[in-house]
Amino acid sequence: MPRVNLEGSSSIVTGGASGIGEAAARQLAAAGSKVVIADLNEEKGAKVAAEIGGVFVKCDVTKTEDADAAVEAAVAMGPLRACVNSAGLGAPGRTIDRDNNPHDLGRFAFVINVNLIGTFNVLSRAAAAMAKQEPMDADGSRGAIVNLASCAAFDGQIGQAAYSASKGGVVGMTLPIARDLSAVGIRVNTVAPGLIDTPIYGEGEHAEQFKAHLGQSVLFPKRLGQGEELAFAIMDCITNPYMNAEVIRLDGGIRMPPK
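The chain above was modelled as a monomer; its predicted structure follows.
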């Protein structure tokens, strides 16, 4: 059985304007797919889309109308065969602060809404479109979805209750959604990154020193991971026709300490 051929297909990548999402979008485009960059950052998103021959759609992943717009843009370019949910954020805060005040519930809910509910929103709208398409092989395959979780889903640190809960939810829904979508030939997998070199760490000498320090806690190799390396795993989840219902930690072997 050959790898999934993405020539002439379309794909959606949320959070595709930078970091892991951008790396995945570039690899999807290199494989012959027309990519929708679904992101809130118009300047960066439009630039990436132009460079890879795709389109940019401004997208708040928590809004069904935005998700539908991204799906519509993808289907207009070709059969939708891949959806990568990379959009996400963090809002650190302890369950109670140093003065014993409780964590702000709205802040907690915001992280859950974007990282977990936003992921489900986009994947469900994409799956609905994929299910209406003709199968692309004798197995009846119609597409593949890859969600981004985090190693914080398994060993979240102090102050990561909201982020860990959101990413733990992404991990937890991988199998039931894969089971749901098996009836229409759509595979679902999750990649859980460790410490990855993305724009979140900033730029300049101080940022580079900080990243080098963080990298020493990785088992091997002792550095932060690269977005491209995460994209390799994402592409394997999409193009390996037997990869389904799996959660892959891609973290250089790190096990996060409490803080």
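The mean pLDDT is 97.
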